[in-house]
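Reagents: none. Just compute today. Stress-induced-phosphoprotein 1.
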Amino acid sequence: MSEPKISNRIMYLSLIFLYKEVISKTPSYLLSLLIRIFSVHIRVRAQKAQKSRSFPNPFSGTDIIPKLRADPRTRAWLDDPEYLALLAQLQANPQMMGSQLQDPRILTTLSVLIGIDSGADEPMDTEPPEPNLPENKKLAKEEKEQGNAFYKKKDFANAIIHYNRAIEHDPTDIAFYNNLAAVYFEQKEYEKCIKECEKAIEIGRENRADFKLIAKSFMRIGNAYRKLKEYKNAKVYYEKSLSEHRTPEIKTLLSEVEKIIKDEEMKSYINPELAEKEKETGNELFKKGDYATAVKHYTEAIKRNPDDAKLYSNRAACYTKLAAFDLGLKDCDKCVELDPKFIKGWIRKGHILQGMQQSSKAISAFQKALEVDPNNAEALQGYRACTIESANLDGDPEKIRQRAMGDPEVQAILRDPAMRMILEQMQNDPRALQDHLKNPDIAAKIQKLLESGLIAIR
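Predicted 3D structure written out:
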């Protein structure tokens, strides 16, 4: 019997409609059958799509990342390279979709992309029924399903009643305690949530529960402590969760809370008064010529007050004396970033660049200083000296070459095979210059070589 003539797209959309309708009404233990049916359909249609190219791939849209980022069920997975690679494979090869539906992440991702609402912020623990269950366990499962239904409606009072009844019927199932803890979490009763999760872990250990369920209990304790702003406790329980079962979601949560702890420690360390004392000590050591020790005190001052631009300028002065020009330049950049009007930062940057034989960049730094104070003698002197040095192309060619080759940017340009070919072409055919100058990147590199004095246009 031949297959009815119906378009791939209509069949696909009809199946999605059926999926949406059934998933909201079907008990969890029947969903596995639905998944298998959906999987077979996906594989058959994807194979035919290789010829017709008409099968709609839900992973091919340009807006899938924003959709997945906006949904709490999938947001954390976007930080996992393996998950992103899997998405890319599904975008390129939709025929893989059927086989990948066994991965719960892909099933959840698909539900997000086709618009199925989870109905709750904290997912419930569901599992297929076991055959020939004792009467008490059957009753417990029924109570749990009723509790899940109320939970999805955010009727937490009734959900608690049914979860407690489930526990009365079967006090050995960790899932009931986890679900009860989820309700307390949604009600913002975080202390109750933690106690219920601790009970869940104890019951789970005693009854050899799945490590994934125990990991979920630890994760929820971590989430509760995070809500209570007890970040160090949250970190401990996220780590315990990872020790039970590693997931991208937990790794992301752990990274986030570690960053919060680090930021808080930095904030608690800030003390402008102690920073000022460290700066004064550094100033005294600088005057004595003990630059290395002065750096340590300026560094401590920066930790105590990281937004003080002057501290970076002072440390840059030490680095200059120690011939650590790269470090000094980095501090100058931070200094003028924090306070663009701090003229000493620009002047110090100009002197460092001048010492590094990067006259054109030094000129720019001195120009910035003169924008702050047009009459500053030190900035004027530095600007004039660099201008004369940069314009002195009729001097000793060897000195010009040495000065230019001391510039890391010039070195990088000359190591570029494409630029070397362009320079050779310009030498043989000067008219080629006009064509190359149309490319902004090449034009900037040629300008740099002109400023360094290595090349000249006659």
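The CA atoms of residues 366 and 379 lie 5 Å apart.
Action item: order primers for follow-up constructs.
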